[in-house]
Design goal:
Blueprint lengths: L1 E6 L6 H11 L4 E4 L2 E4 L2 E5 L8 H8 L4 H13 L4 E6 L2 H10 L5 E6 H4 L2 H14 L2 E3 L3 H8 L4 E4 L8 H8 L1 E4 L13 H12 L5 E12 L2 E11 L4 H20 L3 E12 L2
Parallel strand pairs: 1-5, 1-6, 2-5, 11-12
Antiparallel strand pairs: 2-3, 3-4, 7-9, 8-9, 10-11
Length: 272
Amino acid sequence: MEVIAFVGPSGTGKSYRSLIVAKENNADGIIDDGLLISQGKVVAGTSAKKEDTRIASVKHALFIPNKYASEMRSALKKSKIKKLMILGTSEGMAVKIAKRLEIGPIKHFIHIEDVATNDEIAMANRMRMEDGKHVIPVPTFEIQKDFSGYFLHPLRRFQPNLDIEEKTAEADKSIVRPTFSYMGDFVISDEVIIQLAIHEALKVDGIYKITNINIRKTVHGAHIDISATVKYGYNIPSVCRKAQYLIRETIENLASVNVRRVHFLVKNIYTQ
Protein backbone atom coordinates (compact mmCIF):
# COMPACT_ATOMS: atom_id res chain seq x y z
CA MET A 1 0.00 0.00 0.00
CA GLU A 2 1.39 3.37 -1.04
CA VAL A 3 1.09 6.12 1.60
CA ILE A 4 0.97 9.90 1.19
CA ALA A 5 0.08 12.63 3.67
CA PHE A 6 -1.93 15.85 3.58
CA VAL A 7 -0.79 18.17 6.37
CA GLY A 8 -1.56 21.57 7.83
CA PRO A 9 -2.35 23.19 11.19
CA SER A 10 -5.69 22.51 12.83
CA GLY A 11 -8.55 24.57 11.42
CA THR A 12 -6.99 25.33 8.04
CA GLY A 13 -9.46 23.32 5.94
CA LYS A 14 -7.68 19.98 5.41
CA SER A 15 -10.74 17.82 5.93
CA TYR A 16 -12.83 20.12 3.75
CA ARG A 17 -10.39 19.70 0.85
CA SER A 18 -9.35 16.13 1.53
CA LEU A 19 -11.67 14.40 -0.97
CA ILE A 20 -10.48 16.53 -3.87
CA VAL A 21 -6.81 16.27 -2.85
CA ALA A 22 -7.20 12.49 -2.56
CA LYS A 23 -8.81 12.33 -6.01
CA GLU A 24 -6.08 14.45 -7.58
CA ASN A 25 -3.44 12.14 -6.11
CA ASN A 26 -5.27 8.88 -6.89
CA ALA A 27 -5.68 7.99 -3.22
CA ASP A 28 -8.61 5.65 -2.63
CA GLY A 29 -8.42 5.77 1.18
CA ILE A 30 -8.17 8.52 3.80
CA ILE A 31 -7.16 8.44 7.47
CA ASP A 32 -8.69 11.44 9.25
CA ASP A 33 -9.10 11.88 13.02
CA GLY A 34 -9.34 8.18 13.79
CA LEU A 35 -11.53 7.26 10.81
CA LEU A 36 -10.69 5.20 7.75
CA ILE A 37 -12.70 6.57 4.83
CA SER A 38 -12.98 5.03 1.38
CA GLN A 39 -15.45 5.61 -1.46
CA GLY A 40 -17.39 8.11 0.62
CA LYS A 41 -17.96 5.69 3.49
CA VAL A 42 -16.53 5.17 6.96
CA VAL A 43 -14.82 1.80 6.65
CA ALA A 44 -13.42 1.58 10.17
CA GLY A 45 -12.60 3.52 13.30
CA THR A 46 -14.39 6.05 15.48
CA SER A 47 -14.03 9.80 15.31
CA ALA A 48 -11.59 11.47 17.65
CA LYS A 49 -14.02 14.40 17.81
CA LYS A 50 -16.20 12.37 20.17
CA GLU A 51 -13.59 12.59 22.92
CA ASP A 52 -14.33 14.78 25.93
CA THR A 53 -11.02 16.69 25.94
CA ARG A 54 -8.63 18.04 23.35
CA ILE A 55 -5.77 15.89 24.70
CA ALA A 56 -7.88 12.74 24.44
CA SER A 57 -8.86 13.74 20.91
CA VAL A 58 -5.22 14.11 19.85
CA LYS A 59 -4.34 10.72 21.36
CA HIS A 60 -7.28 9.12 19.59
CA ALA A 61 -6.19 10.64 16.26
CA LEU A 62 -2.75 9.11 16.87
CA PHE A 63 -4.43 5.74 17.54
CA ILE A 64 -3.59 5.72 21.23
CA PRO A 65 -4.38 3.48 23.16
CA ASN A 66 -3.30 0.38 21.29
CA LYS A 67 -6.83 -0.93 20.71
CA TYR A 68 -7.45 1.86 18.19
CA ALA A 69 -4.23 1.07 16.34
CA SER A 70 -4.90 -2.68 16.36
CA GLU A 71 -8.43 -2.25 15.00
CA MET A 72 -7.24 0.07 12.24
CA ARG A 73 -4.31 -2.17 11.25
CA SER A 74 -6.75 -5.06 10.90
CA ALA A 75 -9.15 -2.96 8.80
CA LEU A 76 -6.36 -1.79 6.50
CA LYS A 77 -5.19 -5.35 5.91
CA LYS A 78 -8.72 -6.42 4.98
CA SER A 79 -9.32 -3.41 2.74
CA LYS A 80 -8.51 -3.21 -0.95
CA ILE A 81 -7.06 0.29 -0.62
CA LYS A 82 -4.07 0.75 -2.90
CA LYS A 83 -3.10 4.30 -1.97
CA LEU A 84 -3.76 5.82 1.45
CA MET A 85 -3.70 9.51 2.36
CA ILE A 86 -3.10 10.39 6.01
CA LEU A 87 -4.33 13.75 7.32
CA GLY A 88 -2.25 15.36 10.05
CA THR A 89 -1.50 18.71 11.61
CA SER A 90 2.19 18.29 10.73
CA GLU A 91 4.56 15.98 8.89
CA GLY A 92 5.63 14.62 12.26
CA MET A 93 2.08 13.70 13.22
CA ALA A 94 1.49 11.95 9.89
CA VAL A 95 4.71 9.95 10.35
CA LYS A 96 3.63 8.94 13.89
CA ILE A 97 0.26 7.73 12.58
CA ALA A 98 1.95 5.70 9.85
CA LYS A 99 4.28 4.09 12.40
CA ARG A 100 1.40 3.32 14.77
CA LEU A 101 -0.45 1.62 11.93
CA GLU A 102 2.70 -0.11 10.67
CA ILE A 103 2.37 1.32 7.16
CA GLY A 104 4.59 3.49 5.02
CA PRO A 105 7.00 5.03 4.63
CA ILE A 106 5.20 8.18 3.52
CA LYS A 107 6.30 8.85 -0.06
CA HIS A 108 4.91 12.34 -0.51
CA PHE A 109 3.72 15.21 1.68
CA ILE A 110 1.08 17.67 0.45
CA HIS A 111 0.73 20.87 2.47
CA ILE A 112 -2.49 22.87 2.84
CA GLU A 113 -0.63 25.88 1.41
CA ASP A 114 -0.17 23.92 -1.81
CA VAL A 115 -3.91 23.69 -2.44
CA ALA A 116 -5.50 26.67 -0.66
CA THR A 117 -4.94 30.41 -0.73
CA ASN A 118 -4.15 32.42 2.39
CA ASP A 119 -7.67 33.87 2.33
CA GLU A 120 -9.25 30.41 2.14
CA ILE A 121 -7.11 29.17 5.03
CA ALA A 122 -8.05 32.25 7.07
CA MET A 123 -11.75 31.64 6.35
CA ALA A 124 -11.49 28.01 7.48
CA ASN A 125 -9.70 29.13 10.62
CA ARG A 126 -12.44 31.65 11.43
CA MET A 127 -15.06 28.95 10.99
CA ARG A 128 -13.26 26.74 13.50
CA MET A 129 -12.51 29.51 16.00
CA GLU A 130 -15.88 31.29 15.92
CA ASP A 131 -18.28 28.40 15.34
CA GLY A 132 -16.29 25.45 16.68
CA LYS A 133 -17.16 23.41 13.57
CA HIS A 134 -15.17 20.59 12.03
CA VAL A 135 -15.65 18.89 8.66
CA ILE A 136 -15.64 15.12 8.23
CA PRO A 137 -15.37 14.04 4.57
CA VAL A 138 -18.29 11.61 4.48
CA PRO A 139 -22.02 12.09 3.85
CA THR A 140 -24.25 12.89 6.83
CA PHE A 141 -25.97 9.50 6.91
CA GLU A 142 -22.60 7.79 7.23
CA ILE A 143 -21.70 9.51 10.50
CA GLN A 144 -25.06 10.22 12.09
CA LYS A 145 -24.88 6.94 13.95
CA ASP A 146 -21.56 8.07 15.39
CA PHE A 147 -22.59 11.62 16.24
CA SER A 148 -26.24 11.32 17.19
CA GLY A 149 -27.11 14.25 19.42
CA TYR A 150 -24.19 16.37 18.26
CA PHE A 151 -24.42 19.40 16.01
CA LEU A 152 -24.52 17.89 12.55
CA HIS A 153 -25.47 18.90 9.04
CA PRO A 154 -24.33 18.26 5.48
CA LEU A 155 -21.97 20.76 3.90
CA ARG A 156 -22.90 21.62 0.33
CA ARG A 157 -20.76 24.28 -1.21
CA PHE A 158 -20.28 23.97 -4.97
CA GLN A 159 -17.53 25.92 -6.63
CA PRO A 160 -17.94 26.97 -10.26
CA ASN A 161 -14.55 25.65 -11.40
CA LEU A 162 -15.18 22.06 -10.29
CA ASP A 163 -16.26 19.35 -12.69
CA ILE A 164 -19.25 17.10 -11.95
CA GLU A 165 -17.30 14.39 -10.14
CA GLU A 166 -15.50 16.93 -8.01
CA LYS A 167 -18.78 18.68 -7.18
CA THR A 168 -20.12 15.36 -5.94
CA ALA A 169 -17.05 14.86 -3.80
CA GLU A 170 -17.34 18.41 -2.53
CA ALA A 171 -20.91 17.81 -1.40
CA ASP A 172 -20.26 14.61 0.49
CA LYS A 173 -19.05 16.17 3.71
CA SER A 174 -20.58 16.78 7.11
CA ILE A 175 -19.91 19.35 9.81
CA VAL A 176 -19.79 18.41 13.48
CA ARG A 177 -19.10 20.38 16.62
CA PRO A 178 -16.60 18.35 18.66
CA THR A 179 -17.47 17.33 22.22
CA PHE A 180 -14.53 19.32 23.56
CA SER A 181 -15.51 22.51 21.68
CA TYR A 182 -14.89 25.66 23.68
CA MET A 183 -18.31 26.82 22.48
CA GLY A 184 -19.69 24.75 25.37
CA ASP A 185 -21.99 21.74 25.56
CA PHE A 186 -25.64 21.60 24.64
CA VAL A 187 -28.32 19.11 25.58
CA ILE A 188 -31.68 18.61 23.90
CA SER A 189 -34.27 17.29 26.35
CA ASP A 190 -36.79 14.56 25.60
CA GLU A 191 -39.55 17.12 26.02
CA VAL A 192 -38.25 19.07 23.03
CA ILE A 193 -38.30 15.93 20.88
CA ILE A 194 -41.83 15.14 22.10
CA GLN A 195 -43.11 18.63 21.28
CA LEU A 196 -41.57 18.53 17.81
CA ALA A 197 -43.12 15.12 17.16
CA ILE A 198 -46.58 16.24 18.27
CA HIS A 199 -46.38 19.46 16.25
CA GLU A 200 -45.45 17.63 13.05
CA ALA A 201 -47.90 14.77 13.52
CA LEU A 202 -50.85 17.14 13.94
CA LYS A 203 -50.00 18.75 10.59
CA VAL A 204 -51.09 15.55 8.84
CA ASP A 205 -54.67 15.40 7.62
CA GLY A 206 -56.41 12.53 9.34
CA ILE A 207 -54.67 12.64 12.72
CA TYR A 208 -57.08 13.77 15.42
CA LYS A 209 -54.77 13.72 18.43
CA ILE A 210 -51.61 12.18 19.89
CA THR A 211 -52.36 10.17 23.00
CA ASN A 212 -48.88 9.07 24.04
CA ILE A 213 -45.20 9.37 23.03
CA ASN A 214 -42.30 7.35 24.35
CA ILE A 215 -38.66 8.04 23.47
CA ARG A 216 -35.90 5.46 23.84
CA LYS A 217 -32.35 6.68 23.27
CA THR A 218 -29.53 4.42 22.11
CA VAL A 219 -25.94 5.05 21.03
CA HIS A 220 -27.16 5.03 17.42
CA GLY A 221 -30.06 7.44 17.89
CA ALA A 222 -33.61 7.82 19.11
CA HIS A 223 -36.51 5.37 18.81
CA ILE A 224 -39.86 7.16 18.99
CA ASP A 225 -43.09 5.29 19.78
CA ILE A 226 -46.30 7.24 19.16
CA SER A 227 -49.91 6.37 19.95
CA ALA A 228 -52.53 8.33 18.05
CA THR A 229 -56.22 8.69 17.27
CA VAL A 230 -57.03 8.90 13.56
CA LYS A 231 -60.15 10.44 12.03
CA TYR A 232 -62.66 8.11 10.42
CA GLY A 233 -62.51 7.85 6.62
CA TYR A 234 -58.77 8.37 6.17
CA ASN A 235 -56.38 5.72 4.84
CA ILE A 236 -54.55 4.77 8.04
CA PRO A 237 -51.27 3.44 6.53
CA SER A 238 -50.96 6.56 4.36
CA VAL A 239 -51.60 8.87 7.32
CA CYS A 240 -49.01 7.05 9.43
CA ARG A 241 -46.35 7.12 6.71
CA LYS A 242 -46.78 10.87 6.23
CA ALA A 243 -46.51 11.49 9.96
CA GLN A 244 -43.44 9.26 10.28
CA TYR A 245 -41.69 11.13 7.47
CA LEU A 246 -42.47 14.61 8.85
CA ILE A 247 -41.45 13.70 12.40
CA ARG A 248 -38.16 12.14 11.36
CA GLU A 249 -37.20 14.94 8.95
CA THR A 250 -38.05 17.72 11.41
CA ILE A 251 -36.28 16.23 14.42
CA GLU A 252 -33.14 15.42 12.44
CA ASN A 253 -33.05 18.86 10.78
CA LEU A 254 -33.97 21.03 13.78
CA ALA A 255 -32.53 19.05 16.69
CA SER A 256 -29.67 17.22 14.91
CA VAL A 257 -30.74 14.00 16.62
CA ASN A 258 -30.47 10.83 14.59
CA VAL A 259 -33.92 9.20 14.48
CA ARG A 260 -33.58 5.45 14.03
CA ARG A 261 -37.28 4.63 14.10
CA VAL A 262 -40.72 6.23 14.37
CA HIS A 263 -43.25 3.58 15.38
CA PHE A 264 -46.88 4.63 14.97
CA LEU A 265 -49.68 2.88 16.86
CA VAL A 266 -53.27 3.84 15.98
CA LYS A 267 -55.31 3.08 19.10
CA ASN A 268 -58.60 4.78 18.31
CA ILE A 269 -60.76 6.13 15.48
CA TYR A 270 -62.46 9.50 15.86
CA THR A 271 -65.92 9.26 14.27
CA GLN A 272 -67.74 12.47 15.22
